[in-house]
Amino acid sequence: MNSTPSNGVPILRLGDVLVTGLLNELDDKSAVAFTEELTARITSDHARGVLIDISRLEIIDSFVARTLMELTTMARLLGARVIVAGMRPPVAITLVELGLQLTGVETALNAEQGMAALGWHQTPSPPEGVLRDTRQ
Amino acid sequence: MTHASDVGTASRSGPPAIDDGFRTAPAVHEVRNEEDLLVVRHAVRAATLRAGFSIVDQTRVVTAASELARNAYVHGGGGTLAIEHLARTGAAGLRLTVADEGPGIPDLSAALTDGFTTGAGLGHGLGGARRLMDEFDIDTAAGDGTTVTVTRWAVR
Question: Of A6, A23, B75, B107, which alpha carbon lies 20 to 30 A from A57's?
Answer without folding.
Answer: B75
